[in-house]
Amino acid sequence: MIIPALASALRRTARITIERPRAGLWSQLALACALFAVAVAGVAAFSVERWIAARPATTASMVVYLADGTTDARARELTDELRRLQGIVSVELVPPAESAKRLVAEGKLTAADVPETDGYAPPAGFMDGVVYDGRKPNLYLQALKIGLK
Asked: What are phi and psi of 70, to 5 degrees?
C-alpha cells in the first residue's frame, strides 16, 4: 500500500517538475526532507535498540501495592504476569504485615501508623446481643437458638 502511494507521488512530482519547474523544485525539496526525516527516525530507533542491548545490567526497582480485597489467587496471577514481561529480573509477593514493616523501616510510615492486629476485628455484639469473635465462628453459631417454632 505504501509503494503504490510513493510511486504515485513520484509520478505527480515528475509531471509538476516538467510543467512548472519552480514548483517542481519545491516538491523535490519537500520529498528530500521527508526522506531525511524517515532516515533520522530509523537511525535513532536502531541506536536506542543497540544502546539498550548493550546495558543489560542497568535495572530499576518498582513496588506495586495491591488494593484491599485482592485475593491471593489474583495476586499470584499478577506476579506470574509480571515475571513473563521482558526486562523483569525478579518479582516478590510480600504479605501485608511484612509490607508494613518494610515501609516503617524505609521511613515512609511511622510505627504508630501501623495497627497491631492479627487481622481480626475485636469481638463485638453482632446480632441479638450475641458476641461474635472471628477467631471462633462456630461458638457464635452454637450460642444462637436455632429451631422450629
From this structure: -70, 125
